[in-house]
Amino acid sequence: MKIVIIGAVAGGTSAAAKARRNDENAEIKIFDMDYDISYSGCGLPYYIGEEIQDREDLTPRNAEFFKKKYNVDVFRRHEVLNINTEDKALTVKNLDTNDVFTESYDKLVIATGAKSIVPNIPGAENSNVFYLRNVTQADKIKEYIITHKPKSAVIVGTGFIGLEMTENLKNLGIEITLVERLNQVTPGLDSDMAVHVEKYLKSKDINMVLGDSVVELKGEPLVNQVVLQSGKVINSDFVIMSIGVKPNVELAKEAGIELGANGSIKVDTKMMTNIKDVYACGDCAESYSVITKKPLYRPLGSTANKMGRIAGDQVSGGNLEFRGILGTGIFKLFDMTVAQTGLTEREALNEGFETVICHNIKPDKPEYYHGKEMVIKAVADKNTGKLLGVQIVGYTGVDKRVDVFVTAITFGAKVEDLFHLDLAYAPPFSTTKDPVIYTGMILDNAINRGRELITPGELNKLIEKGNDITVIDARVNKQYEEAHVDTAINIPHGQIRKKAEELDKEKVVVTYCNKGVTGNAAQNILINQGFKKVYNISGGHKNYKAQSK
């Protein structure tokens, strides 16, 4: 049997390796247009920022490695021009010699990846406007920095790559201006979590222009001005365009292979396309959501490797099948870590879920053992009690928590299940009630025990509409005097029982403290004393203040 793979990065090489493990006799060939194969695309910003010194650390496996270890023939600088699915043949061009030849296959795996979105604006393809998708492009950015010694850069887009490049260029002493067309940074987060990232970026002296977009890049021969839709002009020595990627599917489309709703190659759980013996995997292929079961396009190296392994298994007689993804992502921003999995609040609402939201602000371990605060936003389904998604912004221990949440959501956990997890505890690693457990407790109280939460945004809407509500600040007088919700009255927790007699039990009451715990205690007292409707502000005054720019 002859297995041919188009593409030699994460998906393609994973498919080849798995196919070889299953079948020692198959003939396996990979064609790729690039110079480098099997590289770590996620490591490129750190190579540019000199955190990774040696280029070879990003490209540890070359064609000789695959031939020696897997008996797989890898042809670099070979472009597949055409796929003839009827004859099971490819037209291939050697980019170094310009020779064109035909290659047959029994099983074909398409792993052509994704490519950067290049905006249709003047100057978008000038030599000092960079797009970061492969090692060669990273080399060009490094060479430009070494040769021209730039003092400033504009980075367009605030997704993973945009913010990772922000950190690495800033560490090289380059002044950074971020431009984001949305009114927030980190488009993958809800706005009430993005504010924490924005505040941190300001503390690092990163310039930000939000709610604006680039319409022209001016300058000859090199771009030196970025013109925005608002009319604002930013002087810059070079530009990083990080506005997203799109699946590289032209080859597949021309061959009659069906595309999905998001423009990537439509595949089943076996990675098979609509054409027999043709499979697809990696950033060019469609995933689906574990939660909604709907198509989902989240191009990440982790998913590409998984899909590649399944494709390689299927083309060599195996039975592995794809089980979907949650769209989990994590990135580092200087000392901060930002992570997300599952549905955001806005995605959950768009899918028709009746959501319950909590903001849990807790240290990753006891403060006496150098614990640092993290903010966990969790989204749950009010009707089933199932956890739908989590976003975390913090400094240490974020990766550990998000992975626990990923596992819980993957296996359909309800919020009350989180409390029963027997998580590892010792002061150097966690608090006695881990932030994961505490998140489950907060949501369980809200969904199953009548201790309802209200977000800062929801409270502000009630106040703006003139609703007759009582807002109680349960903190001590000093904290209240420093800052409080405008309409709040101050009744410290220790006085709630006595003062409750003076309040109207028929009115809606909202309690809060600094981060939520004492507000919940005040809420409990009022509910137990017969108050009809009592909410606690999610994340307390700390979260409320963060949302009030």
Automatic annotation (TrEMBL):
It is an enzyme of class 1 (oxidoreductase). Residues 465-549 form the Rhodanese domain. Keywords: FAD, Flavoprotein, Oxidoreductase, Redox-active center. InterPro entries: FAD-bd_OxRdtase (IPR050260), FAD/NAD-bd_sf (IPR036188), FAD/NAD-binding_dom (IPR023753), FAD/NAD-linked_Rdtase_dimer_sf (IPR016156), Pyr_nucl-diS_OxRdtase_dimer (IPR004099), Rhodanese-like_dom (IPR001763), Rhodanese-like_dom_sf (IPR036873). This is Coenzyme A disulfide reductase. Pfam families: Pyr_redox_2, Pyr_redox_dim, Rhodanese. It comes from the Bacteria. Its cofactor is FAD. It comes from Clostridium magnum DSM 2767. Its EC number is 1.8.1.14. One of its GO terms (molecular function) is CoA-disulfide reductase (NADPH) activity. Belongs to the class-III pyridine nucleotide-disulfide oxidoreductase family.
